[in-house]
Amino acid sequence: MPANIRPISQELAKVAKEELNEVPERIQKDLEALREWIRKQPHLRARTDDQFLIAFLRGCKWSLERAKEKIEDFYTLRGRMPEIVKERDPLNEKTRELIRCGVALPLPATETPGSPRIMLIRPGAYNPEKFTFTEVMKVGNMVSDFVMLNDDNTMIAGQIDILDLGNVTAGHFLQMNPGLVRKITLLTQKGLPMRQLETHCINTPPGFETLFNMFKGFVSEKQRNRIHVHGSNIEQLYRYIPKRLFPDEYGGEAGKIEEIIDSWEQKLTSYADWFREDEDLYGAIAQEELNEVPERIEKDLQVLKDWLAKQPHLHSRTEDQFLVAFLRNFRYSLEKAKEMIDSYYSVRTAIPEMRKDRDPLSEKNREIVQTGYSLYLPKCAPGGPRIFLNRVSAFDPNKYSIYELMKVASMINDIAIMEDDNAVISGHIDIMDLKDLTMAHYSVFTPTVLKKLIMIAQQATPLHQKEIHYLHLPATMNTLFNVFKKYLTEKNGVKIYVHNNLESLQAAISSEFLPAEYGGQGGTIAEIAANWEKKLLEKREWFLDDEKYGTDEKKRRGPPRTAETICKMAKVRELSPELAKLAKEELNEVPERIEKDLEALKEWIQKQPHLRARTDDQFLVGFLRGCKWSLERTKEKIDSYYTARTVVHEVMSPRDPLLEKNLTVLRLGYLVPLPRTESPNSPRVVLIRYGCYDPDEYSIVDVIRLSVMIADLMHLEDDNRMCAGEMVLVDMENTTMKHLFQVTPMLMKKFAMLTHEAAPIRQKGFHFFNTASGFEVAFGTFRNFMKEKVRERWQVHGGGAEAIAKVVPRHILPKEYGGDAGSVKDILAEWEKKLIANRDYLIDENNYGVDEDKRANGTAKETKEMPNIRAISPELAKLAREELNEVPERIDADLEALREWIRKQPHLHARTDDQFLVTFFRGCKWSLERTKQKLDTFYTVRSALPELISHRDPLERRTLEVIRMGFVVPLPMTEKPDGPRIMLFRPGVYNPTLYTIHEMIKVSLMVNDILLCRDDNRTIAGQVGIVDLAGATMAHLGQANVVLMKKFSMITQDASPLRQKGFHFVNPPSGFATIYNLAKGMFNEKMQQRFRVHSDKESLFQFIPKRMLPTEYGGDAGPIQKIIDSVEKDLTEARDFFREEDAYGTNERKRIGRPKNAETLFGVEGSFRKLAVD
Fold it and tell me: Which N-terminal residues, if any, form the signal peptide (predicted)?
């Protein structure tokens, strides 16, 4: 059949042939190819009429592949923007009124029969107090759709936009927020098949230039080059477009605007049925959104049933209606449906309190239903999602447990799964009403309960959660709300809304569907609850029968699934507030990261062929805390821990606490952990009584073995020891030479390895008392096997109880030492009980260790040279150790590990000299994993910004001119030897008509790169920026568009190893606030809190001493010109360095995984995705 498309004029046919590659003989074949492709896309239900499809072929210059992508984008983007493309009724009174405003008007005449269409856009034509910008864009979208189907000039020759900003007020601009502009830009650039040739802005208001520079960052560079701003000079516009083509009001001959509006009102209203039909196209959700193919349902259900029959651990329902709910929830992905069915029953089996007594006749169950705590509402939009109302305070927390409530909610959910097509197909919208919530309610929602609730909803319910609306969120619930949010997946996290009142809720959910108590027409809560009680009673037999279904984890192929493994909850004991604070501040512990880091450790352990290690959470978290939450150091420590235990095997067996020898040694009291600590967050104090045993009857190995057994239990149970560390008091009373002679040099070395290198404990000190004759010799020998840091913590006091009391307070000491913490005998009796109670654990420890024959990379480690880095001052060394976790003894090993990683990255070409790499370690607080990420980001971002990074020759004339301006001036003085470097930025020093902000930033980065390798204060203590805006004009500020600010924030924040300590802005010009607020938003919250604007220099001096500033600012740092001369000298001497820099970067074609480029890092699409999360 011939293609059913409109004939076009000779002139347009010529354009179509020459510019769009249109070949009339190929049209029918290509249209059929497009239709065939559409038919094979299960997720896509698109129009397939010829005139619609040919618009995409022409818009994509007859490239079939690009046309397919454009059709996909057309429908995908519209699906993301229902507020613009849904409910487009031109007969609606408000819509018709907007049409008559004439905001978007395609003008009737073109310059020639083959010329582009001119679109006149008049945003000032509507009243922003009456209409929203979203409503305006909806009408504009209707006009675009009509043009796409009916205007050959637009679809072949393209479109020229005239943006008339006359009568635009602040009210209009306030509606045009950046997020909405991003959406509109994305929809018009990616979602429409029109060729946008030019945009001309006329009648621009004062200040438009600055705003324009902000927003043009959202469009592609190609489009930016096609934008022309004429201000109020409309005659300038006529040089591009003939005056006669404009309406009479613009001095043209195209007729009055009102006449053009009348014509377009008639056209759009005539298409009312088309718009309605277009929306109905998206109504069959089960088929279009869920990929449901009726002919395939029976086959897919049979596949599921066959699979269920083969699962020995799984006893599941197999009714068709039950199983189809799982298929629909996962868009007919069989594999995901299988996973969900397994999770559905695994969770219910793992949380038996939810499955127990699900009898609808149970008095308590009926009472809970009658409270109306959890109810699906009876009314919803045809084909729309079901609304689930959860009235959190409707129950008595003293009468009902949270699990009883969850059980009844799960019963209601089960009925929805079986009977409610709206909930199964369209999903559900949750309303969480928190009104009248009390502390008694609050207390039942522990983090564990909340996580179980979330995981049940997400992993064990085949109903798609669309949105969550929180109503009446009290201030006291903010903490709980934040805990709740952190457990949500990212997908659900973007769908959370908070309403302070019913009016806000009704704006989001129609009152037609809400209960009467919420101002709706959906019946009363009591009526809805009574109806649900009736439904549950009708299903009583179903619920009683349902109890037989579940999982038998003993029969599962693979590891059994428990509540913890399903919910991925770390089985880690909760710390006291004092220890939690210490863990956060000293150990870098982030509670939200615990599960993820534990999972990473477990995955690493599984991949080590030589290593047999415990993987229970409490055990592993002890290593993370002992290594200040550095994953790489933790891996090394676990390896060393088991390696040492395998090597020092004599102290690892026998470990049965019931053996007579072990019991006897324990009762002698060689090692006595004291039960009290000085404060809630103080280290654990351990007493070692060296002379308590008879060296003729027992060996030092016997007592060490028992000590290791005690230490193993402390590792699992003692949070003070694992977080705050351990202090050891060594009482040498009754120690003889026989005791000392048992400690051979080899044994001392093994013991040092076992207690220092292999133990995840922070040793806070070893204090020796009652020392005997000859002790100094043995002590000196033993110290030689320790690192200097540890040696400094070993002290000999010589005296007895009085000397001990000077080190630790008496109240934590046993009564034998003048304290009141009980007797040594009582303490040991408690430990005897603990050891016997944990007998199986202690014996089982012998099953773990290392098999060196299976170690992947061999065991020998080459001796490395000392790292080639600059020595730092004592003050900076102290700061690096305390704030950045720098351990000098570890630097060499960490640098080699980082270089080894770099060598294995095919896409990354990076510097590997020691001083450069150590800068990144310091910037990442010596975390190897974060350093790898930072280094990758450093080069990725720079490779994506060649305009700022490449060809940086300090002797090139223009670059040298910028250097000599002193745009960026590193000040020579710091407040103290370990103070941060102060950087002075002076944007007002350059002429914006002769130079660009790009050139300033380029030189700034050159200065930055030199200081990275040379300035220890900057890399260790951080950097403080002073931005002096004296002389800065709107022309300067106007150069700072959104994309540039985003690039700058990324290159200075995400891709920089520097610690930014603050930015101080002085001498701000008029209009600075707008740019400042926009720029500030590009940085993370932590950085935003460090931004300060000062009205005068005296305000600045409260933060930065005046003496540190240049002479011109009243300081003692010397003239600015002298500092600039020094910077110029440094940069020119580093010319070879900058030439070498061009050789470093990333080759994204070689990256394992998804490539990263300028578009993904800074582009419009990326900005839009971020908007969706916001």
Answer: none
